[in-house]
Amino acid sequence: MHGYTQDKDNYLKRLARIEGQVRGLARMIEEDKYCIDILTQVSAVTKGLQAVSLRLLDEHLKHCVAEALAEGGQNADEKVKEASDAIARLVKS
């Protein structure tokens, strides 16, 4: 079981909302809306995805990484590296 499993419905709702925002962005471009209005919506979508990412990362650290650290060994090292790599990707985006 993954750390996010208990909040799965909330994640799916948030992602559905973001999906709707992305469809709205496409519609705005199709309708030749003002570029600043489109950029404002892009910012909202980006912040929504960042919020999901941070929550997933938090769940991963609390569940997967903590569990691996408690067990120790090579798996613990791999989980810590995995989390570090994920953080690096998020910081770059």
UniProtKB/TrEMBL annotation:
Q: Which GO terms describe its cellular component?
A: cytoplasm; protein-DNA complex
Compartment list: Cytoplasm
The record's section on CDD domains has: CsoR-like_DUF156
Quote any Pfam family the record assigns. Answer: Trns_repr_metal
Residue spans crossing the bilayer: none
Which UniProt keywords are given for this protein, alphabetically ordered? Copper, Cytoplasm, DNA-binding, Metal-binding, Repressor, Transcription, Transcription regulation
One GO MF term attached to the UniProt entry = metal ion binding
Top-level taxon: Bacteria
Query: What family classification does the UniProt entry report for this protein?
Result: Belongs to the CsoR family.
Under which name does UniProt file this protein? DNA-binding transcriptional regulator, FrmR family
Native source organism of the sequence: Saccharopolyspora kobensis
